[in-house]
Structure formats: C-alpha cells, structure tokens
Amino acid sequence: MSAALLVLLLVCGGTAALGVRNLLRSTGNPPGRLLNEINKRLHHGVLQHLFDAAFWPAACVLAGLLAPFVMLYKLFCFVQAAISSLEPELPAHTRSQLAIVVSGCDSGFGWAVAMELWSRGYTVIAGCFSENGIQRLNAATTSSALRMLCIPLDVTSDGSLKSAAANVQAWLNDSKAGKRRLLSVVCNAGVGTGGPADWLQMSDFERDFSVNFFGTIRTCKAFLPFLKQ
C-alpha cells in the first residue's frame, strides 16, 4: 500500500514539474520571475496558513514513506565502505613503480602526505612552491632519495605545470626501471586570505581563486593524460 502511494506521489510530482516547465516555456519569461510571483502569492498573509496546512503534513507523510528506503540505502553504503576498508594496500614490491603527484608540499598537509606516501614505498613527485621546501624534503628523504622527486611547482602558472608534466613524462619513460605508472594526483596546494571583507582587496580574493580554484583545474588538466595511460 505504501509503495503504491509512493509511486502515485512520484507520478503526480513529475506531472506537476512537467506542467510548470511547459508553462515557463509558453510564457517566454525568465523562470525566476514566475517562481517569484508564485512564491509571493503563496506567502500572502491569508493563503500562507492554508498552504502550510497542506504542505507540511504532505512533506511529513512523504518523509515517512521514504525513510525505509533511505535507511536501506545508508546500510548498503555502510556495508560497501566496510568491505572497501578490508581491501589490502597495493603490494609493497610494486609501489616504487607507482608515482603520486602532490602539490603544495612545502609544509602542512602537503608535506605530511608526501612523507606518508614515501614512507609506504611509493614514488612521490612533490611539487614545492619555494626552493626552501624542496631542500627540506630532500634532506628528510636521503635514505631513499630516488623515490622522492622534488620539483618546483606554481599551480597558477601554465609554464610551471608544463615543466612539471615534462618531469613526470621523463620518469615514466625511464625504461631501465621497468613499467611505471602515474597512480594519482593530490591537488593540495592552496591559500587562505582571512579577514573581514571590507579589509581585503579584490586582489586578495583573486589570488585565492587563482590558487584554490583555477590552480586545481590547471593541475588536473596537466596530469590527466598520464592518468589515462
């Protein structure tokens, strides 16, 4: 019974959505205009109480009908995550042939991620913004320096990423070491300019977006061809 009611509600909702879409097309006006007008009418001092009396009970009934399905879905996700957590890591003898690019390795999370992956036996191509960051990583990984390849990397520069991609290509082409593969890319490089909006300049916001948003996209596009190989 509840399943049939749920199907009926979904059909009615879909029909209503199609009706609204066709109405929007026929009026030729921007959707926001019509929706704003509908919202204004529904929240009129008198109609609002009638609308609330119909909407909230219907929403509660629908939530009650969907609750078992949501519970089953989340239980499925739990089982799936539990099974995934039991999967063993890649064999230790193969990890040196797998490279992971990490940006922003000068300090913080980038440094920690690079060191953790290196300690597990992977080859890490660590992108550092400063020469000091490169020197610190090289000094910390002298015991197995061949697996920590530190390169200068500025994620706001196409030229810098092109050079980094060339370094990855050179590592992949080293046939003496056997078959190599780029396993993953960690876009960690980021900045955060804090403070009240009226204290900051537009250049501060532009810099944050240049690194955090466009820098991430630029990094992904630079190394995506290697991940597809």
In short:
The chain has a four-stranded parallel sheet, sandwiched between helices. The protein has helices at about 1-25, 30-40, 45-85, 110-120, 130-140, 160-170, 200-225; strands at about 100, 125-130, 150, 180-185.
Overall shape: it is: extended
Low-confidence stretches: none
How much strand?
A: 5-15%
Biggest β-sheet: strands ordered side by side in the sheet: 3-2-1-4
Protein topology:
Layout: H1 2-27, H2 31-42, H3 47-85, E1 98-102, H4 108-119, E2 123-128, H5 131-140, E3 148-152, H6 158-172, E4 181-186, H7 202-227
Helix pairs in contact: 6-7
Description:
With 229 residues, this protein is an alpha/beta fold. The model has no long low-confidence stretch (mean pLDDT 84). The protein contains seven helices and four strands; from the N terminus they run H-H-H-E-H-E-H-E-H-E-H. 61% of the residues lie in helices and 10% in strands.
Which key terms come to mind for this protein?
229 residues, 61% helix, alpha/beta, 10% strand
